[in-house]
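User: Please run a holo structure prediction.
Assistant: Happy to. Please share the sequence and the ligand.
User: Here you go; the ligand is flavin-adenine dinucleotide.
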Amino acid sequence: MNPTFTSLENFGHSLRAQSYVIQPCAADDIHETFQLAKRDGLTVTARGAGRSYNDAAMNGGGIVLDLSVMNQILAWDPATGQVRCEPGVTLRQLWSKILPDGWWPPVVSGTMTTTLGGCLAANIHGKNNFRMGPIGEHVTEFTAILPTGAEVACSPKKNADLFYAMISGLGMLGIFTSITMQMKKMHSGLLEVHALPTRTLAEHLQILESDAPKFDYIVGWLDCITVGHGQIHAANYLHEGEDPDAQKTMTLAYQTLPSRMFGVMPKSLLHVFMTPFMNNFGTWGVNTTKYVASLRRHVFRQSHAAFHFLLDYVPNWELSYGRSGLIQYQSFLPKETALHAWTEMLALAKQRGLPSYLGVTKRHRPDNFLLTHAVDGFSLAMDFKVTDANRARLYELTQDFDRIVLAAGGRFYFAKNSETTAETARAFYGEETVAKFRKLKKRCDPNGLLESDLYRRIFG
Ligand SMILES: Cc1cc2nc3c(=O)[nH]c(=O)nc-3n(C[C@H](O)[C@H](O)[C@H](O)COP(=O)(O)OP(=O)(O)OC[C@H]3O[C@@H](n4cnc5c(N)ncnc54)[C@H](O)[C@@H]3O)c2cc1C
């Protein structure tokens, strides 16, 4: 175990911090890291694939425990769909293993590069959150090492308080070492996707709400420049017998995203061609073209990988935002207040000349995890380009957004938002939840060894 002192960034490349990076290969290395941290007065942050948009997996001046090499699929039972994995297993590894046997992960993020440890710590949601809840609802057991040195096994029945707090707990209570989950049975490698244009924000939210019960997945693209223009994609699984080529469509060869555009240009270069459009005028042009092209309602079949991991189509797309990167602001609002609050926020962003270049909407339902971000309503994730010139104005905008979201009874997601303050976090979690979390923190981590830049920002 040789720590290396390295500069690490968040996914959006808007933050940077120097840390001692340790790559554990087994539980003993994790124990040793906690002992080292205690002896040298350092703090420890777990890191999976580093795909959080914010500072959740960053620890300036401290130790970053990079779990990406603990990435074995320990057990897979194609008869029952139960899988047990080390925390560094990525969603890509997982679906590649199980789809040829006719299964799919019940909840996935918009990129397949995330690790299961990172997904549990954030308690990720998919485009089916309104139906399937967050990933934590499909975990039957996990094992973890606490900073006290204790090794625990948790399930909804065993150590239930830890189960519901460590999942969603942003890696602040312990380190996941194995995760057992139930996968979902599939009868095809394809989904039937319905594409519907929307002309106003009100229509967009109305369709998300009224159509979600008819579908397995629903997600929207919202043009945040010509506010209200958008498109909704709603998808259903195919039932047994509906795909005559099911054996073929469930193969990896069929699902794997092509590495070249039009069979010629390497997609790894695509982000370079996107860069000139990453300004207010360029994005207006791209969005308007996309909207006009999406005006026709239509139905088509698409592979699971293409539907879920659209963002992985363009490798390193985040680099197109330029040297100072991007931030994502995702708010979750009750269905009763969403329209009013987002209308105000989108107008404010436009008025200040800081429109979001990508808006994505989803339908959600509440869950029982301690640091939950979900509501009975919708989420809107907005990507903003960061520059040296707009950084301070962008910060001010997000603070104004926070006030609007809080007043509307909304919530925030700490895999994404990088500007939320401790005061705002306390206000939306509520005193009771914060007190419960602090009590568990004291029990699991009496010496305060597990800390990240995010933890210091929202709980410090
Ligand atoms: C393109 C893109 C699309 C996305 N789409 C979605 C989406 O649709 N839905 C959604 O919910 N999120 C989405 N996300 C966010 C992403 O799913 C989360 O940030 C996720 O936590 C990242 O996983 P990771 O392995 O990269 O974890 P990291 O970013 O490395 O870490 C995230 C958190 O997990 C903790 N952690 C990591 N490993 C462990 C471990 N073994 N034990 C304890 N704690 C650990 C870290 O300390 C940190 O707090 C998206 C991100 C990107 C970049």
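The first strand starts at residue 4 and ends at 9.
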